[in-house]
Design goal:
The chain is an alpha+beta fold. It has 2 helices and 3 strands; from the N terminus they run E-E-H-H-E. A 3-stranded antiparallel β-sheet has the order 1-2-3. A hairpin with a 2-residue loop joins strand 1 and strand 2. The radius of gyration is 14 Å and the shape is flat.
């Protein structure tokens, strides 16, 4: 079992945050990602939400593929900075 937690808050003066995360569980596999939409506010949040959508839809793909899919899928947005980790439970890798 893996325990995890998050904390998030929008910047003063904004109603939304561009800081998001996703944790996807599959048999013997967990994908973790932390995403920061560039800038602040609505445009940053839209870019981060697009990244989350791509990662959730393709969570079982190799990490290189996930980064490539996000690169292509986020070109019309402001962009994001993100970290992704994939953990194979059965192999402890």
């Amino acid at each position: 079992m893996i325990e995890w937690g998050i904390a998030s808050k929008s910047i003063r003066g904004e109603t939304v945050s561009g800081d998001l995360f996703t944790v996807q569980h599959y048999p013997n596999h967990i994908l973790f990602s932390v995403i920061d939409g560039l800038g602040h506010g609505q445009h940053a949040a839209l870019a981060a939400k697009q990244a989350v959508s791509i990662l959730e839809e393709h969570a079982q793909e190799p990490l290189v593929s996930l980064f490539n899919l996000c690169d292509k899928g986020l070109r019309a947005t402001r962009g994001v900075v993100m970290s992704i980790a994939s953990y194979n439970i059965s192999e402890s890798t």
